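Dear colleague,

Thank you for sharing your sequence with our group. We've completed the structure prediction you requested, and as agreed, I am returning the results in plain text so they can be pasted directly into your records. Please verify that the sequence below matches your submission; if there's any discrepancy, let me know and we will rerun it promptly.
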Amino acid sequence: MLATVASRHSLSTTGPRRRSRTSPLLHVDLTLVVATFILLAVGAVMVYSSTHSRLELAGMSPRYYLNRQLIGIGVGIGAMIAFSAFDYRRLQGLAGVFYGLVCVALLAVLFFGKTINGATGWFVTPFFQVQPAEIAKPFLIIVLATFAAAGKGNLNATRLLLVLGLMAFPIGLIVLQPDLGSTMVFVAILAGILLVSGARARYLVALALVGIIAIGGALQLGLVKDYQKARLTSFLNPHLDPKGQGYNLQQSQIAIGSGGVLGKGLFQGTQTKLSYVPEQHTDFIFTAVGEELGFIGAIGMIVLFGLVVWRGWRIARMAKDFFGAVLAGGITAAIAFQTFINIGVTIGILPVTGVTLPMVSYGVGSIITECIMIGILLSIHMRRFSAAPRPM
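Please find the predicted structure tokens below.
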């Protein structure tokens, strides 16, 4: 009798303790949170630095872009908290809804969207503009992870074709805009998910060959616009067209190189203040970092991105289930690839593709999207010890 009472008392005292140890709030990845918040803060400062001078000259408020960026950050942090609080495993049940909404949005923008920088990929209102291809990223990653993870690490030919088929339609719609940068990011997401999902090496090699052939075919058939071809080739020798396609790259390299080791000081960059670098607050935001914060600041930012990618990869490896691992792998691939491409473009080792720097470049939609992806990573990490939720 005494033994039974003691046993019940033991269970009653250890049960809550065990539940408390598995509480998601105790397993927040603070390194990922801190790195993300610093990138968002530095991004806001760089957006202001790269826009306030020309806005003043135009008779506009110097805080015009900054205020919108801060709104994006505020909404993004709210979305990050919401997705981290939501059990990521419930997202699998919404994959079909997400896929349908993404495809409808990408199709609608071709007919009703506005053309900006050569791509018909934006819904524009008097108050804001939205790029469906940007918002689609986390939701397509959820869709692909749902179907790829069903193979439990053995992605056979049938399931591989299913995943490729699901991705083919959205990518095709993005190609029609045409948006080369977003297309490349989605291809990188697909590659990352296939890799984590256990696709066989011969399948990946075959897909790479098909991709190379497709690129060659697109160039021959005229699917790639002349200005896009010029962007892809101008980085090899920007001096051949210094006032045309090579201008962006030349001014970008001048800005970064002039920063030296310690930089010219915040808001003191001449290339930045005089607006010599086109699209500096979006695609070329890294040039403002290089010029005003110097080599030290640029390396510091790269280290922060390295921390985000490392934590994402760690979360994928520590995930409780295979869906979480694939989901984290796809998100990490997207952030890593986009960061590499953007910085590579600004320093002149890659052609100009129109890819923004995650969490740093101006863009309300992109900031919210990236915060959603960080929120999903946090949700996966926070629930690596908790039981699966009951079906909705």
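Summary note from our side: The beta strands are 114-116, 119-124, 129-130.

Kind regards,
the structure core
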